[in-house]
Design a protein that fits this description.
Radius of gyration of chain A: 27 Å
Helix content of chain B: 25-40%
Strand order of the largest sheet of chain A: 2-1-3-4-5
Oligomer: heterodimer
Largest sheet of chain B: 6 strands, mixed
Largest interface: A-B, 15 and 22 residues
Distance between the termini of chain B: 42 Å
Strand content of chain B: 25-35%
Structural class of chain B: alpha/beta
Order of helices and strands of chain A: HHEHEHEHEHEHHHHHHHH
Largest sheet of chain A: 5 strands, mixed
Structural class of chain A: alpha/beta
Number of strands of chain B: 14
Radius of gyration of chain B: 22 Å
Number of domains of chain B: 2
Chain lengths: 376, 309
């Protein structure tokens, strides 16, 4: 028994000493929970408010102004744009610039006076039902209350028990509010982030750990050649992954694909390459494979939580959105959802594509500059 | 006048406060095999790495194969072969795949023929599709050497190529090195083995980052001015620990049943062993070995280092 305890103690002391020397792991064990606390506690909000909304007002009257401000007063809608035509409103919705379009018809008051039940349309970009759900639920009540207040005095006769204005809620792109339509394309971004970053994060550290790095450095091969060479095979693997996910999305889950395969392909290729380059950059700064893995995990967490994959992007506070904006997954998700579900065109996604392109340049430059041709 | 293959002056490398290589000058003419000796941690590997452009010196300058070691690294890498101390090829590739990879990096023409020839010369042609990780230590070293010379370099830098390799494989390895030198390749090889040092054309001895001796084995022994004695007789070998710390003796070591002692001064050496004469012990003059000289130099370097500190 004492022998057992003595040897057990020897093992415990050894493990503790080794753990104390492994600073990165130690730091990770404290940084990870703190990061999760902050993200889940402060950044994530399942009831997103202040969603950007465009209004298409064909009748400028006391009543239309009241209706718009009633919607704003729910807290869910923030009027960011005034659309002049239906086409412009559509474009805003498709580009993802606004979440809602509120249309007030030209003859609202006249029809109301005649008792003809005019239509007030609220169109939502419902690709992510979680973002639009609470807001949509608030519309009817807000309209009813406004009408009750406005239709007083001479117009009180038009205040029947039944709702005098028909509110038409139109869930665009995902009329049935099916969550997996949103999740499956998003999953593509998360899967690629997870596998691609990790693959190359190990690439250089593995060479260093196995002792092949010194040999490689002694031969005439340039950093960009090493990097491109290590990345290239994984691009193919990434492409296969994408093919599998998209096929499954279509066959198993019935997720629609209404947009252009070309735009989708370009964005995906760009995104895969960025992730591989990020992994390579991690690889150049970490001392061993374990550290490279830890860095990948550290990167994956915000990519899932802050990119709009797991929780509504627009529900997050400003600082969290700012962090989300520098994560490639965020932009990729917008493009994939835009193209697959909303049929967005290359021109409509040009901004997001440009951001991804810029990220690629920055990450590659960083990774190449961090890769040392000497052992200094 | 022929241009030296290696010509470096005043090389310095520091890691923090520690000076690992301290003003080392080295000049090696083409076609020579220079043995690079010194205790562990004396700066051999660091010096080799600076010469082949893997490390940037903190001081000093020099040329390797006519190219500046700081500004013309790529040119040096293209013409030199560097064999790392730790096996640097990929264990999860086959023997042939490793050689092909190296050949492609150097953009060799007729890659297939070059690799075939290398495999043939190595005697690994029949095992070329085996995974490299399954090779024994001796074979790994020979494969690493074959990979280093695939691009027909003018200079070979070998960092303890035969560490942990059996005598037969070591001999094969050295035969190969001599064959390469005969073709005009310059070789700088670090080692701990005295027999290997004696197979070199010349030797450079480094201790505590400082170059302590330079020349052929005989020159170095002669220049050291050491004397040596050998004792034979009953219990001679057991005297070593007692003699080691006596004034006038720098080293005492048992070789089988005999005892080998040496010191810088012949008279002082005889005086030191005087109490141990008789008792059936027979003492006689011997020539100091390279090992004696190196142990002596190491002691002196250590004293210098301590004085400086």
């Amino acid at each position: 028994m004492t022998d057992f305890l003595a040897r057990l103690w020897a093992m415990i002391v050894k493990e503790a000493l080794q753990l104390r020397r492994d600073r990165p792991t130690f730091a990770m064990m404290f940084a990870m929970p703190i990061m999760q606390l902050v993200l889940f506690g402060f950044a994530i909000n399942a009831d997103p408010k202040g969603l950007p909304t465009a209004v298409l007002i064909s009748e400028h009257s006391q009543l239309s102004r009241s209706l718009v401000s009633a919607l704003e007063n729910t807290g869910y809608f923030t009027i960011t744009r005034q659309a002049a035509t239906e086409a412009e409103a559509d474009e805003l919705l498709q580009r993802g610039e606004v979440q809602f379009v509120v249309t007030i018809p030209a003859d609202l008051t006249r029809k109301l006076v005649r008792g003809e039940k005019p239509q007030l349309a609220v169109e939502a970009d419902a690709t992510d039902p979680a973002t639009t759900g609470p807001a949509m639920n608030a519309v009817n009540q807000a309209v009813a209350q406004t009408l009750a207040r406005e239709l007083s005095g001479p117009l009180a006769v038009h205040r029947p028990t039944e709702q005098p204005v028909e509110v038409v809620l139109h869930r665009r792109y995902n009329p049935e509010g099916i969550t997996r339509y949103n999740i499956v394309p998003g999953l593509l971004g998360v899967i690629l982030t997870m596998t691609m970053v990790m693959m190359t994060a190990l690439a250089v550290t593995r060479e260093r750990e196995r002792g092949t790095m010194e040999n490689l450095l002694a031969m005439p091969v340039k950093p960009i050649e090493v990097m491109a060479g290590k990345i290239a095979p994984y691009i193919l693997i990434g492409a296969v992954q994408v093919f599998v996910v998209i096929t499954a999305a279509e066959l198993l889950f019935g997720v629609p694909f209404v947009g252009s395969y070309v735009v989708f392909g370009v964005a995906t290729l760009l995104f895969i390459t960025i992730n591989l380059a990020i992994g390579f950059a991690f690889s150049t700064v970490s001392q061993n494979q374990l550290q490279a893995m830890q860095m990948s995990m550290f990167f994956l967490l915000p990519s899932i939580l802050l990119s709009g994959f797991a929780f509504p992007f627009r529900g997050m506070p400003g600082w969290a959105q700012a962090i989300g904006e520098v994560i490639p997954t965020t932009h990729f998700l917008r493009i994939v959802r835009g193209v697959m579900l909303k049929g967005a065109t290359a021109a409509q996604m040009s901004e997001e594509l440009a951001v991804l392109g810029l990220m690629l340049v920055v990450v590659v430059a960083l990774a190449v500059s961090r890769y040392k041709v000497t052992l200094d | 006048m022929t241009v030296p293959a290696i010509d470096v002056r005043g090389l310095v490398k520091r890691y923090g406060q520690r000076t690992v290589v301290d003003h080392v000058d080295l000049r090696i003419m083409p076609g020579r095999i220079c043995g690079f000796l010194g205790p562990n941690g004396s700066g051999k590997t660091t010096t080799l790495r600076m010469i082949c452009g893997l490390l940037t010196p903190d001081g000093g300058e020099g040329r390797c194969l006519g190219h500046d070691i700081i500004t013309e690294r790529d040119a040096i890498k293209a013409q030199a072969g560097y064999m790392t101390q730790r096996f640097g090829l990929y264990e999860d590739l086959t023997i042939r795949q490793n050689l092909e990879f190296v050949g492609r990096l150097y953009r060799l023409r007729n890659l297939r023929e070059v690799v075939d020839a290398a495999l043939e010369r190595l005697g690994l042609a029949t095992r070329q599709h085996q995974l490299t990780g399954g090779l024994s230590g001796g074979w790994k070293q020979r494969l690493a050497l074959a990979a280093c010379v695939l691009h027909q370099p003018k200079l070979l830098l070998l960092d303890e190529p035969t560490a942990g390799v059996d005598p037969k494989a070591r001999r094969a390895f050295w035969d190969e090195i001599h064959a390469l030198a005969a073709e005009g390749i310059t070789v700088l090889v670090s080692t701990h083995y005295m027999d290997e040092a004696e197979r070199c054309h010349e030797i450079a001895y480094i201790a505590y980052g400082k170059l302590m001796a330079r020349g052929t084995a005989d020159e170095i022994i002669a220049a050291s001015g050491l004397s040596a004695l050998v004792a034979t007789g009953p219990g001679a070998d057991r005297l070593a620990p007692r003699l080691r710390d006596i004034e006038g003796i720098t080293a005492a070591a048992a070789f089988g049943t005999t005892l080998h002692v040496c010191g810088p001064d012949n008279a002082a050496l005889w005086a030191a062993v005087a109490p141990y004469r008789g008792d059936g012990l027979h003492w006689e003059e011997a020539s100091p070995t390279l090992e004696d000289v190196f142990i002596h130099l190491m002691g002196r370097a250590r004293d210098n280092a301590l004085e400086a500190a």
